[in-house]
Design goal:
The protein has four helices and 23 strands. The protein has 346 residues and is mostly beta strands. Strand 21 and strand 22 (320-322) form a beta hairpin. It is elongated, with a radius of gyration of 24 Å. 8% of the residues lie in helices and 41% in strands. The strands form four sheets. The protein has an eight-stranded antiparallel sheet. The chain has a six-stranded mixed sheet with strand order 9-16-13-19-20-23, with no helix packed on it. The longest helix is centred in the first third of the chain and has 11 residues, at 61-71.
């Protein structure tokens, strides 16, 4: 899948905010001079063809339309808010890290793509986040430290899906003090991803289905774009409204999974689902009131900026059988809360 990118154009123009220094000076390093930074956001989200290709496997038209409507709100070409940090390029000895020297947040109006910043002339390490406040349930930890800055999933028993695509960037801004006008291109990459589980219930007689997913990162270090796996959050999958009552469609938006299995995990558990990179937990309520639990273990990584659609069929015993033979399946009939993971069935 093509990565979603956001381009930020930084046009630095000298302004009349000088204190005894000219625009062109033999040494501007000590001048208390601000630069005007025209900050333009241009989001490029050209993944329509990829979504359409994946949706071709979804045979029901109402499911395909509902997914397309949902995904268009996640893989979008709009920033709702931006958080901009400009950090010293030299580490502070006391802090043991580079300190944030300038910080701004902007909530963007409809179709707004540019705004103006005023920052002192110097070199910066620049970190940017778009849609942080739109996503929700994320905290921005250690934001005043360049290498310590991290986006973290809030710790809860179960976490909701991210409400929007999350974009981040890092860039070194080396200011040429001998010229008035400068231009920087800063590329923001999508930091979260999406999944969909399409379940065919025709002929099964099940009363209802709920789904959850787990195996995803809990945070992102902004300075080096590495993901953190402090714990394994259980993500509540959203159920999309469908016109066809014979199908369920569940979706999640979350951080990516690991790229590969850890040695410890692979060596200590022989279960095909436990050795998977990420999993769907599906709970089907049978006509007699019992619950069947199916764990679908996916062995291919869920990468940032990517979408994974899984199709499955409910069997007579309530188990869920995926169409993809590479997906591991573990079934517990007459499941009781507490067997595998504590998932609320409220």
């Amino acid at each position: 899948m093509q990565r979603i990118r956001t381009y930020i154009f930084l046009i630095l123009t000298g302004v009349a905010a000088f204190t005894g220094c000219g625009l062109v000076d033999e040494d501007l390093s000590n001048c208390e001079t601000d630069y005007r930074m025209d900050y333009e956001l241009r989001l490029v989200a050209d993944i329509k063809a990829e979504i359409e290709t994946q949706l071709e496997v979804v045979t029901d038209q109402s499911v395909s339309q509902a997914l397309n409507d949902f995904l268009s709100r996640i893989f979008l070409d709009k920033a709702y808010d931006v958080d901009l940090g400009f950090y010293d390029v030299v580490r502070d000895e006391a802090a043991g890290d580079s300190l944030r020297l300038h910080h701004e947040t902007h909530v963007l109006e409809d179709n707004q793509t540019s705004f103006t910043l005023y920052i002192p002339i110097r070199d910066y390490r620049h970190l940017a986040v778009a849609n942080l406040y739109r996503v929700g349930d994320l905290s921005f930890d250690n934001a005043e430290l360049c290498h310590g800055a991290r986006l973290s999933q809030l710790v809860r028993d179960t976490v909701p899906c991210h409400a929007a695509g999350l974009f981040t960037a890092r860039e070194d801004l080396i200011i040429n003090q001998e010229t008035a006008d400068q231009h920087f291109d800063v590329t923001l990459y999508m930091a979260n991803s999406a999944t969909a589980l399409v379940v065919d219930t025709l002929g099964s007689g099940v009363r209802s289905i709920r789904a959850y997913a787990e195996g995803f990162a809990t945070g992102l270090n902004l300075c080096d774009s590495t993901y953190v796996f402090d714990y394994s959050p259980v993500v509540r999958a959203e159920t999309l409204p469908l016109e066809n009552p014979g199908y369920y469609c569940f979706t999640t938006v979350n951080f990516p999974s690991r790229d590969s299995l850890t040695t410890t995990k692979a060596d200590t558990d022989d279960s095909d689902t436990e050795k998977s990179l990420w999993r769907y937990y599906v709970y089907t309520e049978m006509p007699d009131g019992t619950i069947t639990q199916t764990i679908l273990g996916i062995h291919s990584p869920l990468e940032a900026g990517h979408l994974k659609i899984i199709e499955a069929k409910v069997q007579e015993n309530g188990s869920v059988q995926p169409g993809d033979a590479t997906i591991g399946v573990s079934v517990v009939l007459d499941w009781q809360d507490g067997y595998n993971v504590e998932v609320p069935l409220e």
